[in-house]
C-alpha cells in the first residue's frame, strides 16, 4: 500500500471551490478590454489539517496583446512572471506553496496555444511544483510524475516553506520526462470582453 503524500494532489487542489473561483477570476481578468488579452495567474497555498485549506495570491498580470493577433512572433508571446511566490494574507505562517496557475487567453485562431508550453512544463520540474493552465476549452495541469514521493519528501525538508523548494547543492539535473501533462474536464465561462 502506498503512503499518502503530505501535500495535496492536483485532484485535491482542483476539488477546492476557492481554487475553481480563482481560475474563473483569472480568466475574466485576462480580457481587460474587447480588443486585448493578457495572461493572469498566481500561486496556490495550502494550510490547515492535511494541507487542504487553500489560499490564493496573485502575480502581476502579463503584458497586453491584441485578441486578434494572427502572426506568431516569439518576441511578443504572451507570458506571466511566476518566479516570486507571494504568501496570501489569508494564509497562516505555516502555509505551503502547492501549485501555480495561469491563463492562456489568446485564441488558437489568433495564433495562441491552449496547452502548457515547454517552458511551463520545465518550470514544474525546476520548481518541483504542479501548475495549471486555464484555457478556452479545458483545464490543463502539468506536474511531476505521479507517485513521486521523493519530491514530496524534499518538499517537507525545504528551508523555504512559503516558496519553491530549493535544490540541494549538486542535486540539480536536467529534466528527463519527470513531468506529466493532463486535462481536467472543466472550462471557464466566457469573459465579458472575450472574443471567440
TrEMBL record:
Region (Disordered) residue ranges read 148-169
Organism superkingdom:
Eukaryota
Q: What is this protein called?
A: JAB domain-containing protein
Instruction: State the organism named in the record.
Output: Sphagnurus paluster
